[in-house]
Amino acid sequence: MLERIEQARKTIHASCEKVGRPIQVMEVCGTHTVSIFRHGIRTLLPENLKMLSGPGCPVCVTDQGYIDVVMDLARRDDTIIATYGDMIRVPGKGGSLESLHRNNIKVVLSTDDGLTLAKKHPDKIVVFVAVGFETTTPPSAVAVMDGARDGVDNFCILSGHKLVVPAMQALLGSKNDKIDAFLCPGHVSVILGSDAYKPVVEEFKRPCVVAGFEGIQILEGLAKICEQIAAGTAEIDSVYGAAVTPQGNKVAWKIITDMFEPCDGAWRGLGVIPSATMKLKDQYKQFDALHRFGIKEVPTEEPAGCRCGEVLCGLIDPPQCSMFGKKCTPDTPVGPCMVSTEGACSAWYKYGR
Amino acid sequence: MCLAVPARIIEKDGDRAVADAMGNKWNIRITLTPDIEVGDVVLIHAGYAITKVDEEEAQKTWELFEEIAHFEEERLKAEQQGGDDA
Ligand code: SF4
Fold it and tell me: Is A120 helix (H, G, I), strand (E, B) or coil?
């Protein structure tokens, strides 16, 4: 293992030296962000190689407007809100789900649990808070499929599901063209397949390398990236072994596309990105919380002074935000990047200071 | 949030299965990986198997999880002691 670490480190240093200029590599996965800090990977990197944390934490990229809708639904007496634990502390305009102290808010481990809640409480409408990237979308799709099959008419989802690749394109296209390459998320790529990064490689000529979350994989992924930059190439590569194939998990992808279709949607920091948010297809609209309650999601402003948007685009490091570590800490989070354990601000606060 | 954990399939019934990860047993769905058999090691995310992985890779991840758990414990202990001293 030590040998592999040393080998990767050497390749990274030699390539970066050859390139000479500053290099910026963005990881697009909250799990990578945390793992990079936890393993102290930044300390192994040459001075001209900088890691940026991109829009890879689902909680962080969820627009404020979405959270406000969840809060409004949670305040009703006819609903049960079923959510993954990650979302419970994210502040909206009027506090977080946790701060509402209502017993109709349930933390669940899977969409199945959400559907079970609906079967148990026929007098309530269960709203599943469906956030997450391609890895988390199939379970939501299956829940709606099962719900439709079993005739569960008091279950719906509020889909905030997102697609990673269009976000990378939007980022390069309009927000930050100083990103030299992407370290691509392992588990998202299991579903997506590594071929999915073709647009980034072909259109923008940026290397895309998929890595798992172990320290050694991240280092070896970075080594591949630096080699490509030094050689002036931009290709898709993977150091994640057999779990990631070029085509991804086709069964999962079919279930996603049977139930969902891409639509334009707001991302925190990135604004409205075309075709990067997933909504239920028309024939399943009775399972769509927006349709069911006749409401609209309105993109809203970030909390005053919070610079999560710039953090997510790799334009600033968290300590450049004046609230970082002062008004904003994991105990008193102002923005989602501090709330989520996978958020860049939280990772910097815990490990990076 | 997109983290997946390796576990071994120990029972299977239609598109539902029981998986074991380091002694923890979970009821999971194998809807996304219909070809899975008992004995296979899979990655599990939010209650769903998302792909088959090889034994060796899973072993490394399990070890890593133990390490992380241990590391977090130590860190908490250190923090607490730090707090006591102050
Ligand atoms: S430190 Fe807090 S306020 Fe500043 S960008 Fe991060 S989450 Fe937002």
Answer: helix
Residue range(s) defining the domain that contains residue B34: 5-85
- The mean per-residue pLDDT over the stretch B5-32 comes to 91
CA separation, residue A305 to residues A87, A302, A310, A323, A335 (Å):
21, 8, 11, 8, 9
Quickly state the pLDDT bin for B83 (edges 50, 70, 90).
Answer: very low
CA distance linking residue A251 with residue A266, whole number of Å: 28
Instruction: State how far the Cα of B20 lies from the Cα of B41, in Å rounded to an integer.
Output: 9
- Given the structure tokens 């670490």, which residue do they identify? A5
Whether the pLDDT of residue A353 is over 80: the answer is: no
Closest atom of ligand 1 relative to the A345 alpha carbon: 6
* Portion of chain A with pLDDT greater than 70, in percent: 99
Distances (CA, A) of A154 to A47, A115, A125, A250, A308: 56, 9, 5, 30, 35
Compute the CA torsion angle A107, A113, A115, A119 (nearest 10 deg): -100
For chain B, what is the domain count?
Answer: 1
Residues A1-353, CATH architecture? 3-Layer(aba) Sandwich (3.40)
Q: What is the pLDDT of residues B58-76, one digit of tens each?
A: 787 777 777 766 766 776 7
Give the Å distances, CA to CA, from A69 to A176, B2, B43. 30, 23, 33
Please give the model's pTM, rounded to 2 decimal places: 0.88
CATH number of the domain at B60, please: 2.30.30.140
Interface test with chain B among A115, A131, A135, A136, by most B beta carbons within 10 Å: A135
Distances (CA, A) of A300 to A210, A321, A332, B57: 33, 20, 21, 43
- Provide the number of CB pairs (under 8 Å) joining chain A to chain B: 95
Structure tokens at B55: 């034994």
Is residue B85 pLDDT above 50, yes or no?
Answer: no
Angle at A260 between CA A245 and CA B50, to 5 degrees: 35
**CA–CA dist A55, A59 (Å, integer):** 10
Q: Do B31 and A255 touch (CB under 8 A)?
A: yes
Query: Which residues of chain B does A213 touch, with a Cβ-Cβ cutoff of 8 Å?
Result: 3
Beta-carbon neighbour count of residue A184 at 10 Å?
32
